[in-house]
Amino acid sequence: MENNIFNIEISLFKVYMYRYLILEDGTVYKGTAYGYEGETHGELVFTTSMSGYLETITDPSYAGQILIFAYPEIANYPLSYESMESDRIQVSGLITRDAHAEMPAGNLGISFDEFMRMNKVPGIDGIDTRHLVEKIRRKGVMKAWIRNTEKMPDDFPDTMSENLVGLVSRKRESFVKSGSKRILFIDVGTKNSLINNLAKIASLHIVPYNYDFDSIKDDYDMIFIPNGPGDPAHESLDELRDFIKRSFGSIPVTGVCLGNQIIALAAGARTEKMKFGHRGVNHAVTNGDKIYITSHNHGYAVSRDSLNGTGLRLAGWDINDGTVEMLEGDELKTFSVQFHPEAHPGPYDGEWFFGKLREMLGD
Ligand SMILES: NC(=O)CC[C@H](N)C(=O)O
C-alpha cells in the first residue's frame, strides 16, 4: 500500500519513505529515502569506483556535488574512522542502486543511514544508476535536486559558482613536525591522506587557502597545493594564484588535482570544464614511457593547447582522451599531477610522486 500524501509505503516490517532526484532537464527518478530527511541540490556527478565508498564521500573535493555511485553495492562493509578523508561527509547528496543503509557499522558504532543522517546528507536508493550514468555521459553533468516531492523546484542553483574552497579549507594554521625540510601546505580542501603522505617526507606548515601570504617571512623548501572542490579559476582563489605566480622559480611548487590546476592557471595556462569529468580508480595515465592505473576525481582540466609559452611541459596524459594529467616546469621549478597519487580509494601506481617530491627537496 502506498500513501502518496506522505510518500510512504507501509509494508509488514518497515515504513519506506520515497524521495526524488530531479534533474535540470526535467527528468525525475523516484527511489527509497535514507539518511537526512531534508532536501539538497548540487552538480550531479558519478564515480565508477568499486570500493572506498567512505573515502570517496568524505573527500572535500565533492563539496557542492550530488554523487552517483555507478557501482551498485555501497556500504556493504563497515564504516571506519581511519578511512575518512575529512571530518564529515562532503557530498551534498548520494544516489545509489543498493546501499546497505542499515549496515551495522564498524568502529563508528552507527549504521550508514545514521551516519548520513548525522551529517545532514540525504540519500536515495534503488535508482537505476546505470541508466542515470549513461544519461550524464551522453548529456554531460547537470544540476539537480534531491526532494521529498516530485514537484519541479523554482531553479537549479550552480554550486560551482560558489566559493566551495572557503567551505572546506581549515580556518586556522597548524604544524606537523617531521624532519628538517619544511613544506608550506596550502589547504584548498585537502584529503587527510595527502597530509599523511607529505608528513612522511617533511615538516608541514598547513595554512588556510586565504592565508596572508604577504606576511610570510619563514623560509620553506617547497610549496604544496592539494586537492579541493569547485572551479579552479574561481575568483576566491585569485590571491592564492597570484602568490603561486610570485613563487615560481624561487621555490619548488608542487600539487595534486586542484593544486595542478591552480599551478597551471598561475603559469598562464587555461582550465576548462569537462563534459562529465573523470571519477574512478582505473584511469590509465602515461608519461610516454610507462602506463599508471590511477585514481581520478576531477570535473575540470588544464587545456592542453594553452600550455605554449607558460614554461609548463605536458609530462603525462590520460591514454583514453588525452586529458592533461601531469605537468612539469624546469625554470618554474614545478611538478604537479591531476590524478590522486595518494589513492584512498584506488591503486598505488602513482605513489612514486612522493619520491619525486623527496628528490625535489634534495632529500
Ligand atoms: N579532486 C580535486 O582536486 C578536483 C579539482 C577540481 N575541483 C575539479 O573538479 O576538477
TrEMBL record:
Annotated PANTHER family: CARBAMOYL-PHOSPHATE SYNTHASE SMALL CHAIN, MULTIFUNCTIONAL TRYPTOPHAN BIOSYNTHESIS PROTEIN-RELATED
Described purpose of this protein according to its UniProt entry: Small subunit of the glutamine-dependent carbamoyl phosphate synthetase (CPSase). CPSase catalyzes the formation of carbamoyl phosphate from the ammonia moiety of glutamine, carbonate, and phosphate donated by ATP, constituting the first step of 2 biosynthetic pathways, one leading to arginine and/or urea and the other to pyrimidine nucleotides. The small subunit (glutamine amidotransferase) binds and cleaves glutamine to supply the large subunit with the substrate ammonia.
EC number: 6.3.5.5
Pfam families recorded: CPSase_sm_chain, GATase
Pathway: Amino-acid biosynthesis; L-arginine biosynthesis; carbamoyl phosphate from bicarbonate: step 1/1; Pyrimidine metabolism; UMP biosynthesis via de novo pathway; (S)-dihydroorotate from bicarbonate: step 1/3
Organism classification: Archaea, Methanobacteriati, Thermoplasmatota, Thermoplasmata, Thermoplasmatales
Region annotation (CPSase) ranges: 1-181
Leading EC class: ligase
Carbamoyl-phosphate synthase small subunit N-terminal domain location: 17-147
Name under which the protein is recorded: Carbamoyl phosphate synthase small chain
Subunit structure: Composed of two chains; the small (or glutamine) chain promotes the hydrolysis of glutamine to ammonia, which is used by the large (or ammonia) chain to synthesize carbamoyl phosphate. Tetramer of heterodimers (alpha,beta)4.
Similarity field: Belongs to the CarA family.
Biological process according to GO: 'de novo' pyrimidine nucleobase biosynthetic process; 'de novo' UMP biosynthetic process; glutamine metabolic process; L-arginine biosynthetic process
Residues annotated as the enzyme's active site: C257, H340, E342
